[in-house]
Amino acid sequence: SHTSSRENLENTLIEAAQKYKLNGINIDFEKITSDTGIHYIEFLRELSVKCRNNGIVLSVDSYVPSAWTTQYDREEQGKILDYVVVMAYDESTAEEEAGPNSSLPFVQEALDNILTMVPKEKVIMAIPFFTKVWQEAPTGELTYKDYAMTPAAQLLKDNDVEAKWDDANGCYYAKYELDGSTYQMWQEEDKSIEEKMKVIYNAGVAGVAEWKLGLEKESIWDVILRYLN
C-alpha cells in the first residue's frame, strides 16, 4: 500500500530483467486479501508501464475466476498486462470431499469466465502435470498428496489397480483399498491433457502453460505439440 515500497520492488524487478537479459517477468502473488487487491492492481499497473518502457513482457498468474477472488480485478489485468495466466488446477483441495484436480468442466468454465473479462489474445491457460491422490483413513479423515505423472501411474501398478475413463471429468479414475484406507485418484496423463488441449485450442486463446516442468511424462510434449501453431 506504500508507493515507495511498490516502486522499490518494481525497480528491482526491472533491473534484474535487464541484468539477465530476460524476455519477461511473471508475477505470481497468491492469497491476496480483499482489502489488499486495490494495492496489488496498482502495483501491476505501475510495473506494466515500466515493463513497456523497457521492452519487457509482463504476465500474471491468476486463480480461475470466482466470487471470492474478485479482488484480483481481472478486467483491469486484461487492460494493463500482456498476458493473464489462468491456473486451471487445484480444483479440489478442501479436505472434505475428494475430487479431480482439473476436470474438463472446470477448465471449460474457467475459460468461459476469463474470456468475459480478458481478451482471448492475452489469455494463457495453465494446466497441471500432477495428480492428487486422496486417502480416506479408517477414522474418516480425508487428506491428499500431489504426485508427478510417472509416480502416480506406478502407484496404480504397484497396487494392481486399473483406472477407468471418467467421461464426465475427462480423466481416468481409480479407487482402491489399502491397509484399511480408501484411495482415490483422478489421473493426469496423456489423454486427460489432450482433452484439455482440445478445449484450449478451440477457444483460440494465446497459449498454454503447465505446472510444472519435471512432473510430466516425456510423451506429454507430443500431445501438446499437436495443438500448437
So what's the overall shape? globular
Query: pLDDT average, as an integer?
Result: 97
Secondary-structure element string? HEHEHEHEEEHEEEHEH
Number of helices: 7
Strand content: 25-35%
Strand order of the largest sheet: 1-2-3-4-10
Q: State the share of residues found in helices, binned by percent.
A: 25-40%
User: Low-confidence spans: pLDDT under 50, at least 5 residues?
Assistant: none
What's the number of extended β-strand segments? 10
Structural class: alpha/beta
- How would a crystallographer describe the biggest sheet? 5 strands, parallel
Distance between the termini: 41 Å
Radius of gyration: 20 Å
Structural commentary:
By secondary structure, the protein is α/β, with parallel strands linked by helices. It contains seven helices and ten strands. Helix 2 links the parallel strand 1 and strand 2. The radius of gyration is 20 Å and the shape is globular. It starts with a helix and ends with a helix. The model has no long low-confidence stretch (mean pLDDT 97).
What does the secondary structure layout of this molecule look like, with pairings?
Blueprint: H1 3-19, E1 24-27, H2 37-53, E2 57-63, H3 74-80, E3 83-87, H4 104-114, E4 123-128, E5 130-136, E6 142-148, H5 149-158, E7 164-166, E8 171-178, E9 181-187, H6 190-203, E10 207-211, H7 220-225
Helix pairs in contact: 1-2, 4-6
